[in-house]
Specification:
By secondary structure, the protein is of the alpha/beta class. Helices cover about 50% and strands about 15% of the residues. Helix 9 links the parallel strand 7 and strand 8.
């Protein structure tokens, strides 16, 4: 499963990229706004840090303007992935862009039927929002299971990109189901490293090593 980070914070992206575990980045207008920086500038900088896809979202709602925005965004770097909403115009844009080789991430997916439409439109990635489903009292991971089944039934190439990931259990369940990608905030990815027994083990090893009076360096 690929790991994308969902942020526009450059320092966090650099830190995760340095681990060698980061496969891509997802952004959206809200995340860019939180950074307080210019949209195009931030996107270009992120594209220079990671080799994998960097999702940059259009803000227009009609197909024609989406295409104009997409044309400007994909000139930023070769690894820009255009992000479009799951609407009629969004999928028209998706079909047009993927038809000429541009990566497209279809976002704001909340049903398996929507995911089916995105796959038929040639989406590179589909982004179902599991956390927002959980917020409404339903199990967001059930949506991922349904999409995985449908995509496998018809051998769609569209990759399932689990979005709105809130905690490490979402990551674990995504991997169990066989999602292709998950995108999470930096704090969730860093939390994957943590386990109380790992920390206790390190403390025990260091205590025993100190007793030897030796040094590796």
């Amino acid at each position: 499963m690929k790991f994308f980070v969902d942020t526009a914070e450059i320092d966090a992206i650099r830190e995760l990229a340095a681990t060698g575990l980061l496969d891509g980045v997802t952004t959206n207008p809200s995340l860019i706004a939180k950074s307080g920086r210019d949209f195009m500038e931030v996107t270009k900088e992120i594209c220079g840090i990671v080799d994998g896809p960097v999702s940059a979202e259009v803000v227009a709602l009609d197909h024609e303007t989406m295409m104009q925005e997409a044309e400007k965004l994909r000139r930023i770097a070769d690894n820009v992935c255009i992000k479009v909403p799951l609407t009629v115009d969004g999928l028209k844009t998706c079909r047009a862009l993927t038809g000429d080789g541009t990566m497209v991430n279809v976002t704001l997916c909340f049903s398996a039927n929507q995911a089916l439409l995105a796959a038929k439109a040639g989406a590179t990635f589909i982004s179902p929002f599991v956390g927002r489903h959980d917020d409404n009292g339903t199990d967001g991971m059930d949506l991922i299971r349904d999409i995985r089944l449908i995509y496998d039934n018809y051998a769609f190439d569209t990759e399932i990109l689990v979005a709105s990931v809130r905690h490490v259990t979402h990551v674990l369940e995504s991997a169990r189901i066989g999602a292709d990608v998950m995108t999470a905030p930096p704090k969730v990815i860093f939390a994957l490293f943590d386990h109380v027994l790992t920390q206790k083990g390190i403390e025990g090893f260091l205590a025993d090593w100190e007793k030897t009076g030796q040094s590796i360096l």
